[in-house]
Amino acid sequence: MSALKITVGLALAAALLPFATNNPTHLNLAILVLMAAQLGVAWNLLGGYAGQVSLGHAAFYGLGAYASTMLLLNFGINPWLGMLLGGLTAAGLSFLFGWSCFRLKGHYFAMATIAVAELVQIVFTNWDYAGSAVGLTIPMSGQGWGAMVFAEKAPYYWLALGLLVLTLAATLAVERSHVGYYLRAIKDEPDAARSIGIDIARYKQIALSLSAFFTALGGSLYAQKELYIDPASVLGTGLSIKMALVSILGGVGTLFGPVVGAVVLTVIEEATRVAFGGTGRGTDTIIYAGLIVVIAVFYPNGLLGWLRQRRAHGRAQRASLAQEAAR
Amino acid sequence: MNAEILLQTLASGVLIGLIYALVAIGLTMIFGVMDIVNFAHGEFLMLGMYSAFWLFALYALDPLLTLPLTVLMLFAFGMLLYKLVIKRITNAPMLSQIFTTFGLMILMRGVAQFLWKPDFRSIENSWVAGSVKLAGVQLGQPQLVAGLGAVVITAVVHAFLTRTRLGAALEATAADKEAAQLMGIDSHRMFSLAWGIGAACAGAAGVLLATFFPIFPEVGANFILIAFVVVNLGGFGSVTGAFWAGILVGVIEVMGGLLLGPQYKTAVVLVLFLAVLMFRPQGLMGKA
Questions:
Q1: Does B266 touch chain A (CB under 8 A)?
Q2: Which is nearest to B197 in space by CA: B34, B13, B88?
Q3: What pTM was estimated for this model as a whole?
Q4: CA dist., res. A9 & res. A133, Å (int)
């Protein structure tokens, strides 16, 4: 079955969930999974396919959230348009991000992205027009699909699902185009890629702009869902880490890796929070962090990579058994 | 702005910069020897602070008195962490290395919160308190002692690296792991030593800070980004570079705070960091 068919099939099946349950807790968990998955898929465009580990993607998420919210509050611009403009703003500013960080490799790149995101957070924390540290509130006045504000959970679920499918579709398109092949070449053999005339900076920037665009859309959706944003909630370092973590957990550079990672990570996160969160002693954090370490140390290729290895191993074993039997 | 304020700011920048240098030395050493960025480095500092706090609160022992004990404990802890966790990711992809030390950072903060609660704590009435006037500049005694302590410890580490066989072996491993191995130097022993020394230096910085800085589980977050900047400016793996870069960053931070307002002091340091990354990735003092 092709990746396209799997995506469409899963999306159609998932779209029916709100008809099966209207329990707000379950729907909310499903929305959190979808939103985390979308961010992971968007991060993966740069981090997985182009191999550039960004730990500063919260900057794009925050730009998206702030752009749509500020356009709505100050100019009455519809959030649908605001979302698109937010995405374009992030994609535009990603050129600055790329210009300052892309000449760096590996650890240096990762650290530079942290610094850039931290700078963006400092700006928004001290910018009065953007609500500074207090944040911005979106009024509940206009509701419905036009205003992208809803009292119930189901519409947000469909929005998050739609955005995830859109991001997956973009990734699939990249994967199958020449850009995808170039990115893989840049990731695995940068020197060879350069020697055959691939403009490395250009293709890295394409991956970054796309990644920034979709990350910002996720930020706008978050703002419309929570109806409140502040620097800590949309620009925090923890957010950047989570986007990367979702991909790494599932498997970087694979289409569905971040989706798998988002399901596992969000369920673990919420389950430990419900089970131990009330104690105020950080037990949930300890379990969460312990898992990160275990996964990073023992499953460096993510869950999908691990499954693939096991399957390949099983196949090899079966093949050798068949050979034995034939003899 | 008068000269007195300027001098005052410069002096306090140098003093905090010496602490930054001490934190960064361990980070730069770990990176230099095994090419791993330790995101959990600020947590060694946090553990040092808590060690000083509890020895003071429970046994009324002054932080300056318990400094050697804390340094030994952190040294052992750093080696243990290497043996239990880091050793397994020595040759792993960069992503898993980043997330291992990152996970350790969150884990150590969580454990500290679990054991000691998220409250802000402080050490009152330690031996050093109040301030002295030196050449017209008012300096807090705790800060002055901390700065001097940082200089002494940095000097000891430097002497260890340049004057002892073990230190030379460590430097050799940093310069060329394979060649050092051929000379009979056990890489894993050197890596473990680097983690021990790194943790001990950050722990010592924590003890020195404990008399004038709030103690809480996430305190390391205030230092890790600065330490990255210092390591970059000084050149990855260079102890001397980290020392001078630490002082420079401390001065730039307080000067930025004075000129633009305290909310932008970190921003000034980060802009400098990005500028150096872009135009001199080998560090201000590193060789091309």
A1: yes
A2: B34
A3: 0.87
A4: 43
